[in-house]
Amino acid sequence: MGTALVYGAGYFLSSWKVHALAVHYGATVPYTGVPVWFALGSEILVTGLLIATLYWLAAHPRFKWITPWIGGIFFFVMNPLTAWISGNSANFARSFGPDLFAGNWNGLWIYLLGPFIGSSLAVIAIQADILGKIHLMEARLVNFGHHGRVPHMDDPHFVHEAPEHYEEYKQHLQMISELQKQRTVEDDI
C-alpha cells in the first residue's frame, strides 16, 4: 500500500518520481559486492533470530513488558551488522511491493526463501527444545491472558503459570489428549 502511494505521488511530483526510481521504490536489494548466497544467509539468519527471539520472550512472563518492543530493538542491533548484505527485509511482502512497482525481479527469490527458511528453522529449533523450554501454548496464555483456540486447551478452568509448572502442565495436556481419544473411540462404537 505504501509503495503504491509513493508510485502514485510520482505522477503529481516529477522530482518525487526521480527519487523513488533512484531507490527502486524502497526495494530491498542484495549488495552486489558479495555472493548472492551471503544475502540469502543474511535473510535466513535475521528472520530465524527474530522469530526465535519473539517466541522465547513470549513464553516467559517476566519479559511480557518488552515483547511488543523487541522488533524495533532487534533491528536496531541487526541493521548495522547485516543490512548492508541483504537489506534485512525479513518479510516477503516488504520486498514484493517495491519490486512490483520497480519491475525489479532479480533478487526477489532471496526474500521469498530467506524468511521462509529462517522462520522454519526457528520453529524447528523451538520444537526440538534447542533454545530451552519454550512452550508455544504458554506464550498465548502469558501475552493474551486466555486460552483462545489453542489446541489441547479444552479445559477453561485450568489455571497455569508458565513455565515454572511445566510437569503439571504436561500432565494436564496428556489427560486431555487421553480424554479426546476416549471420546473418539466411543463415537466410533
From TrEMBL:
It holds the Pfam family MIP. It is a multi-pass membrane protein. It is found in: Endomembrane system. GO terms for molecular function: water channel activity. Belongs to the MIP/aquaporin (TC 1.A.8) family. Its main location: membrane. Keywords: Membrane, Repeat, Transmembrane, Transmembrane helix, Transport. Coiled coil: none annotated. This is Uncharacterized protein. The keyword Transmembrane applies. One of its GO terms (cellular component) is cytoplasm. The chain crosses the membrane at residues 36-57, 69-87, 107-131. GO terms for biological process: one-carbon compound transport. InterPro entries: Aquaporin-like, Aquaporin_transptr, MIP.
